[in-house]
């Protein structure tokens, strides 16, 4: 069994995927790197994947599939994973070499009868044109370099500090235990990937190292503002699924439940603000429908999401004036945090 499986979803990624792959090869025989070509049509993504498979047998696997979207590529990686732990690295991102060594050394140090269900590391925004690199860490939230549970968290998360796909390494058996299956042909499923397994997580470990490098700067990137507005229906689909998941899963720990509820507040805020930014009557109607959906599904959850700072910020009364204030608030937060 391998120690760590990396899945790299690729779709027309030839221009940048080799930087990602090369950064992972330093793991040697301790890792497997599953490159999933998601039906690329415009370049030689599959050819590059097969080249690495031939050069590094036993480490790299190249898998070609009909186009199913980012989520299906993650699913394919998980189905084929043989590592004790599983991590997704997007094809335009990469990992830091020094941090990588620390990650592998730490994972090796765990005995199989006492290992974390989830390991968290820091990630770095590699944003084109940014004057400095923003590091997202968790020093104020998690005990450092020790095993802990939900009840041992130190403080609440800041708004820019949530556990994202960039920061998480899951124990593979946890993902299989919760029967994780991401939807096909849908962007923003990385939120589901980190969200749905959380009630199955009992033991965590925080390694304070800047491991993952998250690239932001391509015009066609899914987090680009214009792209997000054009794909808002997919964002809504993901948000609704996460709400259904939250309501249907058993929550044995109140702090886990509290964290997941706050994550939903962010998802509702993101969905709402991009519907507002679009400015169309159709999308403003979709915003009302989204909040109505939550209210009809669970009145208590609706109150918890609606009557908080984030819920208020996207439901300011006054029609166009209120929406204008919401837009300004979003622009200010984007400048402060730099999330897209």
Defining key terms:
single chain; 340 residues; alpha/beta; Spore Coat Polysaccharide Biosynthesis Protein SpsA, Chain A; 2 domains; ten-stranded mixed β-sheet; 44% helix; globular; Glycosyltransferase involved in cell wall bisynthesis; transferase
Number of domains: 2
Separate helix tally: 13
CATH homologous superfamily annotation of the largest domain: Spore Coat Polysaccharide Biosynthesis Protein SpsA, Chain A
What's the overall geometry?
A: globular
| Nearest-integer average pLDDT | 93
Proportion of strand residues:
15-25%
Main pleated-sheet profile? 10 strands, mixed
**First-to-last CA distance:** 38 Å
Helix content: 40-55%
- Stated plainly, the CATH topology of the largest domain is called Spore Coat Polysaccharide Biosynthesis Protein SpsA, Chain A
The CATH architecture assignment of the largest domain turns out to be: Alpha-Beta Complex
Structural class determined from secondary elements: alpha/beta
- Rg computed from alpha carbons, rounded to a whole number of angstroms: 20 Å
GO molecular function: hexosyltransferase activity
Organism: Lachnospira pectinoschiza
Keywords: Transferase
Protein name: Glycosyltransferase involved in cell wall bisynthesis
